[in-house]
Write a structure and sequence with these properties.
This protein is of the alpha/beta class. About 40% of the residues lie in helices and about 20% in strands. Pfam families: LpxI_C, LpxI_N.
């Protein structure tokens, strides 16, 4: 008998994509989410969905243990700002937080992964699970970047890799070889909104991986929401790191890029 996969599902379409894939392959799973809307969406795909409070680490582990889970996977976004909204932490979660050097993404996620491994779970690689969703280098949209956009991409990729190395964020917004916004705890789409307000129009969006990206969590991703936000703020180009950035629903992303005349490249 195949052990079910334990999925910790964040917001967005990525978790639903994985659930549909596992269902199509006839593989069992148990889903835990912290988000009401995510539970409602995934409940349409499977009945094995549990919603728990963000700080209930022990409850998550016990759900997986009772279900016979051996491998755990992360998919989707968890808004880190919730940590500042006074969630109720159980003793296991409090112990994890107490031993952290800071509340940056890597520190939190590595502590969570270590806790699962301590309990005997394997933690799956997002790159392996979604390997068909990482495009290689090239122009992906109908429109290629123009000369000015290419210069901004070259400049912006260096800036984005520097910010990612500091574990601040994985997205920067550039116009005329100036960084106008840097992703922090607010996430990609709100960073694009901020950058768009400053740039007015013609902004270029860069998305990269960290220099030592852990493939089990927080792999950079873009999707339809990214492109729709860019169109709304009149950004004109998106560049992602080839083979290292996940594109959610590529057909819809490309269709929307082409409709909005956005140049989309992997470099």
């Amino acid at each position: 008998m195949v052990a079910p996969l334990g999925l910790i599902a964040g917001k967005g379409e990525l978790a639903s994509i994985l659930v549909r894939k596992l269902n199509a392959d006839g593989l069992p799973l148990v889903v835990v989410t912290f988000d009401k809307s995510t539970k409602e969406a995934i409940s349409k795909e499977t009945k094995m969905v549990h919603r728990v409070g963000l700080g209930q680490a022990d409850k998550v582990i016990k759900i997986f243990q009772k279900s016979g889970v051996e491998e755990v996977a992360f998919a989707g976004k968890v808004d880190k700002r919730a940590l500042f909204e006074n969630p109720v932490f159980d003793l296991r979660a409090l112990s994890l937080l107490k031993n952290l050097d800071g509340l940056n993404d890597d520190a939190i996620m590595k502590a969570i992964v270590a806790e699962f491994e301590k309990e005997g779970f394997r933690v799956a690689s997002q790159i392996e699970m979604f390997k068909d969703l990482f495009p290689g280098p090239g122009v992906l949209s109908k429109r290629a970047p123009g000369k000015k956009e290419r210069a901004d991409i070259e400049f912006g990729m260096k800036m984005a890799k520097g910010i990612a190395a500091l574990d601040i964020g994985q997205t920067v917004i550039v116009r005329d070889s100036a960084v106008v916004a840097v992703e922090a705890i607010d996430g990609t789409d709100e960073t694009i909104e901020r950058g768009g307000r400053i740039a007015k129009k013609g902004a270029v969006v860069l998305k990269v991986s960290k220099p030592e990206q852990d493939p089990r969590f927080d792999v950079p991703a873009v999707g339809l929401d990214t492109i729709e936000t860019m169109i709304r703020v009149k950004a004109t180009a998106l560049a992602i790191e080839a083979n290292k950035t996940l594109v959610i629903d590529m057909p819809a992303v490309l269709q929307t890029c082409n409709r909005g005349k956005i140049a989309f490249v992997a470099v």
